[in-house]
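Dear Dr. L.,

I hope this message finds you well. Following up on our conversation about the binding site, I have prepared a predicted three-dimensional model of the protein together with uridine-5'-diphosphate-glucuronic acid. For your records, I am including the exact sequence and ligand specification that went into the calculation, followed by the structure tokens. Please feel free to forward this to your student if that is useful.
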Amino acid sequence: MKKIKNVCCIGAGYVGGPTMAVLADKCPHLEIHVVDINKTRIKAWNDNDLSKLPIFEPGLEKIIKKRRNHNLFFSSEVKKNIRKAEMIFISVNTPTKTKGIGAGFASDLRWIESCARQIAEYAEGYTIIVEKSTLPVRTAEKIKSILNSSLKANNSQNINAQFSVLSNPEFLAEGTAINDLINPDRILIGGDDDDAIKLLEDIYSNWIEKDKILKTNIWSSELSKLIANAFLAQRISSINSVSALCEKTGANVLEVSKAIGMDKRIGEKFLNAGPGFGGSCFKKDILNLIYISEFYGLKEVADYWKSVLDINYWQQNRISSLIIEKLFGTIAGKKISIFGFAFKSNTNDTRESPAINICKNFLNEGCELLIYDPKVTEQEIVSILGSNNLNLDTNKRNWHKLDTIIEAVTNADAIVVLTEWEEFKNINWDIIYSLMRKPAWIFDTRNICNKEEIEKTDINLWQVGISK
Ligand code: NAD
Ligand code: UGA
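The resulting structure of the complex is given below.
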């Protein structure tokens, strides 16, 4: 059996970049080429100034510094690197379709299909294709069909091409991606070609114990990825629904989470109430699950998973409304300070961040937003909230990105904590209070601010899931 030496990864995004960086570090004998059609992104991956990498992820810069241009290369040379590779990882985006059949639910597989067509055209010899992207169950069938019809039609540039398709979904979470890749809970490999499975397993065995490498049939592997995300999201919607009940009944969601989490069958992780889950995947993967369930005639299954999304929207809107209510029912002309715009801490990613919907709700009420986030750029927020959103009364732009917490709270009526950045845990609330307009409010949607310190001031504090 041939050994793998040359690896190509198509897609240099949040998955392709960090995954291949760790692979290069753990397998110095491999030569890894990460290719992307987005030339700006590739340029950023190759920037000498490591703070300009396209993705912020703790620990990533160090590995890139060590491996880049040794056995890890970023380029737009798709054709050349597909040809050279014995193993190709597909890590391209699979967003929700916006048009046509299944719009709003099904995954848009156009980028997956284009990868399959490029591989069919350029690959040489025996090539293993590894699905890293999250895909609807039975996508491997479509990839195989494109590859095989190309072989039959003989339009591959190399008649010796031979393909094997494996599913190897990625379970990393942003913000902890490097640690998740180095110490995964499990590696899942789905497929039916024993030789190909063994070659992929050999790569992971360089740093992962054998008993963590789980082998299944290809459809179980594809489906398990969707289900893992759906279960995680379902826990968050469950605890968020409980947060509202706690606020009404005098229970404390932190105490309830602790009490139920100590039951080993429930477990303590993923029980933090918050402003609703964000990120590029939970919503898209559940929408996809709903679509698949409906496709197979399982309406009740589809409805069950839809309720997880419904609670998530509801939590964002519930929090927006109660904040407005507490600020005397109107925020028109008021300054609201937003602490955190990323969908979670330790990432610059804003995709589906609950901050987006909540900020839009506030802007619709005519307030001015003072946004502080240590990693999200102004340019990114412009692309979401727009640059010429004007306040009707003052005719000035109605949101600003500030570089410091102090600037973001000056003359603000309220602070809304939306991302659990570490620096929000240790704030001198005396100074903050002195800079705010009174009565001053903090709405802590993540339960991370120091309650004792806040209570030493006259700031009014609201915490998710905790009744006053
Ligand atoms: P991303 O949008 O950050 O990156 C995808 C990249 O693929 C883009 O840079 C795009 O230009 C490139 N691309 C698309 N088509 C291409 C082609 N034909 N040739 C070359 N490059 C091409 O996406 P992501 O967040 O890295 O997610 C990728 C996949 O991994 C998705 O299916 C996602 O569901 C899954 N996933 C994501 C995460 C995460 O934390 N973001 C975790 C696990 C799994
Ligand atoms: C999630 C999964 O955790 C990964 O296993 C998966 O690989 C990835 O999706 C994917 O497929 O893209 P990610 O979205 O990066 O990872 O981040 P999470 O830590 O899961 O957080 C998602 C959202 O849930 C965030 O908005 C976070 O703040 C929120 N969350 C998380 C809570 O509100 N409460 C919690 O207890 C945990």
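In brief: The chain has 17 helices and 14 strands.

With kind regards,
A. P.
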